[in-house]
């Protein structure tokens, strides 16, 4: 297949979106249509199954092309919103063709030659990319790290104990579909949820989850690793350490799936090197770029997934100094796992690269 070279519109960089038809890719096209437009031409790429499909971005209908080496001709920045194995194979191809690859998958996150970037926390790391690849963190880490980065600046983080409340869409479109189906199955029976096993029988096959998610919480996300940890829990530990540049940070995570469509929440116990104070911590969070503080429990004001879904910031509330440790804070955070947790952070990284390729005159 031959693909016409892409003309650089107004000298601005050309962007490829690989995986434009997926759950994250769909949100990406929405985000590219609403953020300040730094891009010249945009090329949409997916599997051969989707070739020829037409999708709208920036108000313009574009045809999806199949992934191939030629699809990267003339591309300056290539975002990858595809499964790990597709990124592992094709991000290096894009980089070899001269593009900077910004990868949303888990394929390169812990590679020492690939920076793991959250622009509010470590934007400068994006410039050090010996493989021409930059990684985007996983959605659970991203849902808390912007707020924790601001607190780390103020107090120096030493330890994190985290419990997540993760949405079904973290398991992609199949996760969303399964939760909706399960909710439909249980909603008509007012007696369910009173006898062990009744929800499990009503739901039947739990789909991508290891237990019913409707009327339930499931203490599992990802695959089994040594010592009984889940892959998701280890990602929170390893990726937080890498982003914050704290290789010895103590991190214990328990990842739990809850019956929410989109938006991950986390309860965090954070221990710092110095004593903390509730009001100053609230001030630090309120001033931090990308963070919104909603913390007025007397008036029942705190973030919840139902209020946060579809928004860009990390929302923080329930900020308290720990009763038994003056160096520790307790917080509750919510972030949309498909926006800041995936597409938005990738778009922000790509914008950092675009500014580097085309510095403002
Ligand atoms: N869901 C989340 O909360 C979340 C958060 C952070 C990161 N991520 C990561 O983002 C990536 C995408 O996730 P998703 O939830 O958007 O998945 P998804 O809905 O399954 O979409 C996958 C995309 O990859 C494309 N694709 C699959 N196989 C391909 C191949 N062989 N060649 C070219 N394109 C191929 C698909 O194209 P077709 O439509 O043509 O099949 C589709 O566009 C994954 O690595 C995931 O781990 C997801």
From TrEMBL:
GO BP field: 'de novo' L-methionine biosynthetic process; diaminopimelate biosynthetic process; isoleucine biosynthetic process; lysine biosynthetic process via diaminopimelate; threonine biosynthetic process
Identification of the protein by name: Aspartate-semialdehyde dehydrogenase
Record keywords, A-Z: Amino-acid biosynthesis, Diaminopimelate biosynthesis, Lysine biosynthesis, Methionine biosynthesis, NADP, Oxidoreductase, Threonine biosynthesis
The protein's annotated pathway: Amino-acid biosynthesis; L-threonine biosynthesis; L-threonine from L-aspartate: step 2/5; Amino-acid biosynthesis; L-methionine biosynthesis via de novo pathway; L-homoserine from L-aspartate: step 2/3; Amino-acid biosynthesis; L-lysine biosynthesis via DAP pathway; (S)-tetrahydrodipicolinate from L-aspartate: step 2/4
UniProt similarity note: Belongs to the aspartate-semialdehyde dehydrogenase family.
Amino-acid positions noted as binding NADP(+) in the UniProt annotation, renumbered to this chain: 21-24, 49-50, 169-170, 337
Binding site for phosphate: 109
Record domain Semialdehyde dehydrogenase NAD-binding: where: 14-129
Entry EC number(s): 1.2.1.11
Gene field: asd
Record-linked CDD domains: ASADH_C_bac_euk_like, VcASADH2_like_N
Organism: Motilibacter peucedani
Summary of subunit composition and partner proteins: Homodimer.
The reaction(s) this protein catalyses: L-aspartate 4-semialdehyde + phosphate + NADP(+) = 4-phospho-L-aspartate + NADPH + H(+)
Residue positions of the active site: 139 (acyl-thioester intermediate), 264 (proton acceptor)
Enzyme class: oxidoreductase
Record lineage: Bacteria, Bacillati, Actinomycetota, Actinomycetes, Motilibacterales
InterPro entries for the chain: Asp_semialdehyde_DH, Asp_semialdehyde_DH_beta, NAD(P)-bd_dom_sf, Semialdehyde_DH_NAD-bd, Semialdhyde_DH_dimer_dom
Binding site for substrate: 166, 257
Function: Catalyzes the NADPH-dependent formation of L-aspartate-semialdehyde (L-ASA) by the reductive dephosphorylation of L-aspartyl-4-phosphate.
Pfam families: Semialdhyde_dh, Semialdhyde_dhC
């Amino acid at each position: 297949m031959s693909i016409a070279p892409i003309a650089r519109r107004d000298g601005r960089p050309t962007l490829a979106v690989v995986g434009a038809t997926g759950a994250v890719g769909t949100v990406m096209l929405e985000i590219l249509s609403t953020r300040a437009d730094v891009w010249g031409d945009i090329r949409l790429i997916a599997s051969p199954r989707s070739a020829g499909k037409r999708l709208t971005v920036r108000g313009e209908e574009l045809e999806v092309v199949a992934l191939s080496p030629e699809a990267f001709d003339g591309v300056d920045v290539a975002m990858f919103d595809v499964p790990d194995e597709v990124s592992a194979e094709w991000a290096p191809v894009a980089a070899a063709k001269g593009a900077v690859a910004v990868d949303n998958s888990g394929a390169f996150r812990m590679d020492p030659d690939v920076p793991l970037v959250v622009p509010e926390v470590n934007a400068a790391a994006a410039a050090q990319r010996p493989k021409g690849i930059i990684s985007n963190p996983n959605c659970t880490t991203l849902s808390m790290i912007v707020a924790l980065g601001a607190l780390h600046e103020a107090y120096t983080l030493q330890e994190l104990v985290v419990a997540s409340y993760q949405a079904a869409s973290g398991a992609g479109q199949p996760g969303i579909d399964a939760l909706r189906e399960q909710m439909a199955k249980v909603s008509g029976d007012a007696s369910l949820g009173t006898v062990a096993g009744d929800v499990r029988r009503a739901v039947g096959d739990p789909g991508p989850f290891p237990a019913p998610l409707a009327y339930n919480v499931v203490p599992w996300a990802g695959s089994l690793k040594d010592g009984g940890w889940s892959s998701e829990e280890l990602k929170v530990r390893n990726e937080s350490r890498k982003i914050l540049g704290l290789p010895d940070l103590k991190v214990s995570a328990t990842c739990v799936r809850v019956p929410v469509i989109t938006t991950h929440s986390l309860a965090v116990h954070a221990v710092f090197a110095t004593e903390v104070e509730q009001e100053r911590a609230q001030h630090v969070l309120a001033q931090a770029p990308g963070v919104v503080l909603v913390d007025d429990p007397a008036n029942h004001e705190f973030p919840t997934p139902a209020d946060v879904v579809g928004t860009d910031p990390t929302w923080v509330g329930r900020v308290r100094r720990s009763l038994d440790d003056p160096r520790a804070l307790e917080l509750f955070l919510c972030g949309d796992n498909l926006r800041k947790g995936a597409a938005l952070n990738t778009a922000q990284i790509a914008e950092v690269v675009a500014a580097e390729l085309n510095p403002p005159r």
